[in-house]
Design a protein that fits this description.
single chain, alpha+beta, 2 domains, 45% helix, elongated
Length: 128
């Protein structure tokens, strides 16, 4: 993590004077401050091999989702790493108006009993 001046560390504590202590504290503080700045400047996500954004925490992911209100979470190609290390994403809990209208236009009762399906497949010559 932090690098401390080795010249100061090589001296026994009894031989350190006030100036040495002051320099040691200043150098340690500067290095810790640099480390904090490096961590803060680190991006909050990375791109995986397929080009999806993977956020390091849920907070950054939720801010990203909120910044794109016109898109559903599944359209953003993004996920986050939870506390157990799993990649997670929010579900599409609310349908867009275009999807609702598509569902309304689609024919109803597409399902059929398996016996009916077998009869139709036999008529088409498909081996069952």
């Amino acid at each position: 993590m932090a690098k401390i001046a080795t010249s100061t560390l090589n001296k026994p504590v009894a031989r350190l004077n006030a100036k040495d202590f002051k320099n040691l504290i200043r150098e340690t503080f500067e290095e810790l401050l640099r480390e904090i700045v490096r961590q803060e400047q680190r991006p909050s996500y990375y791109l995986d091999e397929s080009g999806h954004k993977v956020f390091f925490n849920e907070y950054a992911y939720s801010r990203f989702v909120e910044s794109h209100p016109s898109k559903l979470p599944s359209e953003l190609n993004a996920s986050f790493i939870d506390a157990q290390g799993f990649r997670c994403h929010y579900s599409d809990y609310e349908l867009k108006p275009s999807v609702v209208s598509q569902l309304r236009r689609s024919p109803r009762n597409k399902a059929m009993p398996s016996t009916e399906l077998k009869k139709r497949l036999k008529k088409l010559g498909v081996p069952i």
